[in-house]
Amino acid sequence: MTTKVAVVGASGRMGMFISDVVERAEDFSLVASLNSRSDLSEMLEADVVVDVTEPSVSPSVVEFATSHGKNVLVGTSGWSEDRIQRVKSSLTELPDVGVIFIPNFSLGSALATSFAAAAARYFDSIEIIESHHAGKVDSPSGTAVRTAELMADARHERGPAAAPHHDQRARGEQVAGIPVHSLRLTGVVAHQQVIFGGPGEVLTIDHRTMSQESYEAGILLGLRAIITSRGVTVGLDELIDLAPRVGAVSE
Predict the structure, then answer these.
(1) With left for phi above 0 and alpha for psi between -120 and 50, is residue 159 left, alpha or beta?
(2) For the chain, first and last CA: distance in Å?
(3) Active-site residue, 132 included
(4) What pLDDT, on the 0 to 100 scale, is given for residue 245?
(5) What is the pLDDT of residues 168-186, one digit of tens each?
(6) Which of 47, 52, 64, 169 has its CA 20 to 30 A from that of 22?
């Protein structure tokens, strides 16, 4: 038996790619492809819903799906912590429904974000530079927002990061107290650098997406997790085991 999937935002770049991944997977079947002209009720024949629309549209998609008992995998950027908290509050009355927010389906990106959160405890000077294709409408990216928020959480005992001259527009947008600089360029898929400065050294955690193929493993991981998900989950890092494996030492 396959799990029936509806993709909302199916005519976009990511929507078309996810639809193709679903159609090639043996354990899923694509039963609805919704675009901007579709009625949201078309998703109701599916078991689970994937939302890859736009920041202005995504909340209404999530609200409609969850109110009809559908679990939702959200790949749309622009979901801040405040907006996610509102979804958490709404799901208190829907205990059998789950929503997973994944700002970036790349496993490498999830690992880079995790590494950045770990490093943030040791450096006070931190900035993010994120680059995406020219057609990306939102900035900063959801990945950059997620990275900044996790780094700020990791620093709660150390205090806020240093952000000199943050009142100057060229210093980037402050996200959880960390400057984020967004580039939108032809020829770029996705690229994020988290740069840490310390006395006598600079550490850069750099992740570059070369093609959409890098998203396939994360998409399938998210799809398989959303089937039984309950409540709200944020980030691909929550679905993968990031604990180091310590192997036995052979003599």
Answers:
(1) left
(2) 48
(3) yes
(4) 57
(5) 999 999 999 999 999 999 9
(6) 64
**What would the two tokens of residue 218 be?**
């994360």
Spatial CB neighbours of 199, under 8 Å, sequence gap ≥ 6: none
Q: How buried is residue 139: exposed, middle or buried, by Cβ count under 10 Å (0-12/13-18/19+)?
A: middle
Q: Which two tokens stand for residue 220?
A: 């399938």
Domain boundaries 3-104+212-238, corresponding CATH code: 3.40.50.720
Q: One of 4, 136, 166, 181 is an active-site residue; which one?
A: 136
What is the C-alpha to C-alpha distance for residues 207 and 192, in angstroms, rounded to an integer?
5
Yes or no: say if 74 and 58 are a contact pair by the CB < 8 Å rule.
Answer: yes
Residues of the chain within CATH 3.30.360.10 domain(s) are: 107-209
> What superfamily in CATH does domain 107-209 come from?
Dihydrodipicolinate Reductase; domain 2 (3.30.360.10)
Does the structure show a pLDDT above 70 at 121?
Answer: yes
What is the C-alpha separation between 49 and 141, in angstroms, rounded?
22
* Between residues 87 and 245, the one the model is more confident about: 87
DSSP notation for 168-210: SGGG-EEETTEEEEEEE-TT-SEEEEEEEEETTEEEEEEEEE-
> Has 136 been annotated as catalytic?
yes
Residues paired with residue 126 on neighbouring β-strands, in sequence order:
196
Catalytic option among 4, 68, 88, 132: 132
- Which residues in the chain are classed under CATH 3.40.50.720? 3-104+212-238
- Which residues on neighbouring strands pair with residue 128, listed in sequence order? 180, 194
